[in-house]
Amino acid sequence: MASAYEQLQQQLKQLPGLGYRSAERLALHLLVEKPARLPALVQALEEAARTVRRCTRCGNLAEGDLCVICADARRDQAVVCVVEHVPDLAAFERSGAYRGGYHVLHGKLSPMHGVGPADLNLAALTARLADGTVRELILALSNDVEGEATCHFLTQQLPPGGTVKVSRIGFGLPSGGGVLYADSVTLRSALEARREYS
Amino acid sequence: MRLRRITLQHFRNIAGAELAFASRRQFFAGANGQGKTSLLEAAGFITALRSFRTADPAVLIAHGQPEAALACELDHERLGPTRVVIRLRPGSREVSCDGERVPRIADYLGRFPTVVFTAQDLQLIRGAPALRRRWLDLTLAAIDAGYLAALQSYHRALDERNRLLKLGGPPAELAAFEHPLAAAAAVLGVKRGAALAELTHCLAAAYGRIAAAVEPAAVGLAPVAPAADADGWRRIYADGRTRDLRFRTTLAGPHRDDLEFTLGGRSARDFGSEGEQRSLMLALRLAQADFFQARSGVEPVLLADDVLGELDAGRRERFWAAVGSARQVLATGTRPPDTGPDDWERFRVAGGAFAMEASGA
Fold first, then answer.
1. CB B146 to CB A109 under 8 A?
2. Of A78, B62, B110, B236, which cross-links B143 as Cys (Cβ 3.0–4.6 Å)?
3. Considering the domain boundaries, does residue B361 fall inside one?
4. How close does chain B come to A122, measured CA to CA in Å?
5. Is A74-170+183-192 in CATH node 1.20.1250.20?
6. What does residue B199 show for φ and ψ, rounded to 5 degrees?
7. Residue B255, domain member (yes or no)
8. Domain count, chain B
9. Mind listing the pLDDT tens digit for each residue in A144-159?
10. Which residues of A touch B167 (CB under 8 A)?
11. Do the domain assignments include residue B144?
């Protein structure tokens, strides 16, 4: 039987981004260096575990039925930006460039990693599309094979009649970045996604 | 381009070596297992950061050493005098060009073309289709980052689709992965077609010079690709679903392409003599060099690993005439060359050490 300290360290090591050494460092920090932090951390974890859940509409983190974005009446819920993960949504929010709603899939199709349609937050999206409130879908999935396949799969699930406008975000040069430092594949997509200049 | 100096450290059995080349002809003589081929392997490594002998870079690091390093000083048509340094550690490789790190391999590919001639080249005619596809893929990927990107996407999508086929995946999911699969297949098809047309042109010219033959040599896809664009491939994958589900793998597509070499329109594999096949493979490597030069504007360095000894004197002479004097050649063999150009710089290789011999024929 492992000691309590070892058990803590093993639990920490399971967390993403933490290896043996980081887990050891965290455990020592909480138990020896700053034990006063521990109760607040435990309380925060318990509180979050009790209250945080998925938004029933979009899949974002929420403390009630709806997340703050879905509950915000000032946002245009007829436009839905589809993202893979919650941090992708957070990145759009930080940009301040978007005032519509979201849909978080919590992954992308990848049979190699055992992810099929049933593992994605698709049923809620189908329901949103079926009730006719969605006018436009912006696909903001990653620019790789699995992202492409997931986009294709999604567009095949759209209600017939073609009332929903579908677009995919552009892939190209980073802002403030010059042509010089872009790799050739990025340059190619930037060229393909060029727009008329007026 | 021209290789002026090559420095190796802990590369295979070469603990440390620094070789300076004054001319365009270097010959490395020595018994087997002394380090001749390792030197060519190092010189060839700068093209695409791959070895022509192994897919596992870890074996390039001398036993018991933390890393291997190779540095090449070259005169380059576009970059001028250039120093390329490559450090290999287990699981990582680091490239710098004139002291600046190269973060993206895609940008590096094609800058420093080399072409390797080996005794195994005959397998390209006689061996399995996978060898020919690999040769085509490596030749194109070495100078075309777009080809490499399409090839990687293709294989990723293929792995995903094959996984679905093993799981008996539903049509909608199969279709989802056929979408990027078909897009990549179309890119590969167009690029392979264009490259093979150019390669055939170069091959016919080179074969004519080496074999002094009238029948034209050619290389092409056999059979010809069944689709010309992404929509065509999409239909082929969709139509093949029932069959593919039964076999639990994707049975059609660019990953099943094969090449056929012909002499006067007849299969070189079935009808070519031993001598014709040897000449054809030398011509293919020269064609590859011409192709690299046409695409990149850079003269490739030729690396001939123990192939010239097997040729008769007439072919050897015509081979040197076909190579021309502008291209640098690094050649290995157990015996010094008896024919060909007489300006060879000769090195004797023993136990991973190199010693320059007095020059002269």
1. no
2. B110
3. yes
4. 13
5. no
6. -65, -40
7. no
8. 1
9. 999 999 999 999 888 7
10. 111
11. no
